[in-house]
Amino acid sequence: MDPKMQTRHLDFYYGENQVLKRVSLNMKERQITAMIGPSGCGKSTLLRVLNRMNEVIPDTRLQGEVLLDGNDIYASGVDVVEVRKRVGMVFQQPNPFPKTIYENIVFGPKMLGRRDKAYLNETVERSLRAAALWDEIKDDLSKSGLALSGGQQQRLCIARALAIEPEVILMDEPCSALDPVSTLKIEELMQELKKQYTIVIVTHNMQQAARVSDWAGFLLMGELVEYAETNEIFSRPQDKRTEDYITGRFG
Amino acid sequence: MSPKSVQKIAKVFIWGGGAITVAVLLGIILYVLIQGLPSVNMEFLITPPKGGLSGEGGISTATVGTLYLLGITLAILLIPGIGAGIYLAEYARDNRPTRMVRYAVETLAGVPSIVFGLFGFALFVTALHFNFSILSGALTLVCLLLPTLIRTTEEAIRAVPRSYREASLAMGASKWQTIRHVVLPAAMPGIVTGIILCAGRIVEETACLYVTMGGSAAMPTSLLKGGRTLSLHLYYLAMDTNAFDKAMGTGAVLIIIIIIINAVTNLLSQRFQAKMRGG
Questions:
Q1: CA quadruple B117, B123, B129, B135: dihedral sign
Q2: Which residues on chain A are in Cβ contact (under 8 Å) with B173?
């Protein structure tokens, strides 16, 4: 099966500073791919390249290809809105808008031009159910998203990302601001979501990568040192640097 | 000296400073109200001033002039002021021209209002033949207040967390949609504060209107008619007449108007924020 997303010889620069070096990576459909590595290794940058969020930052440059279903998302003529519609994102800090729960979820569809009420109502229920939040808050849809607990806020953000029916979900350390119970809920949720979505997660928590992912890549100073099935990389790392990192010798 | 006694002394200074400030401000307000309120009655409010050196009559045309000027000035001011603030915060690249614009805005915000008055006199009153009029006064106030509104708007927008913008963009919203539906609502309390600040300045400004609005005591029936605001009326009463009691009465009305403007806008922005933060 062809990979859902792919990077080929990807170089990325902030000004003169090269943060990704010839990264070639396949992300398989309906699998969870985890990127691990020490702070500043480029894993968040790699994630943000996958939905062109890096373009928000001025003075950045990219070489190489990023393929979604075999098509380069950086090719000229590709609409960035279309890319971000297909590749959703969940951030490190839960960042619901200071709007009601309902408004948070219909935000994406509304911006993409969906207006009819029945569709929006249905989307809210579908997204909240998919994010395992519906039963907890179905009576509070007119409450502010900021009134929820941290873990609920993050699941709201996941629901919000699901509302635009993406194919790929990028998660940038989605649990680093959450307590262990909320973290566990998000991890269980990811196992549900991967039945339908391709997930790429960045984490510096190796136990988490080992628990949730099917494939794992180790990034060090912008270089993809090793990429393999998760149990392979954690039980039989091929590269000395990977072994040092996962056994906790540095990082 | 031990840290404990240093802390005690610091506390005394901070408390003292705060107490003196509050006392002075309350003192001024109370003094004006006590001196002024006895001469405020219905007749005072609805009679036009006689004008000239007499000091007789009420403040009806000055009140109308103030509200008229307030409305016209805000109507002209808001769109360019808030627009420029959005532009500087969201669109302008950080280069030399932008830095110069920002520097100019900051400098202009500190220029005394009489300088703007002279500029308004030369441009609007004389060169453009608007004469002494509400329009000349309003346009001059717009020049005076644009820097303030631009700066407060820009700061309010910059204070919106980047994470809101990223979440919006990541869902395929365009930059303008993000600004319109996420950034501006979140920045609204700050922008509203800037508008209140401007409204207060319009009501209290005297010097730059002295040279652009004339000071006619007649009812301002059109944009091109001259007129006077309450603060201008107060100035004339205090300088040209002996009607000290009426000057104080005008001052009391002015203070009450400013208190009402502040209270109403605070209430509105609190409601707005409560809705945003969500109870």
A1: negative
A2: 107-108, 111
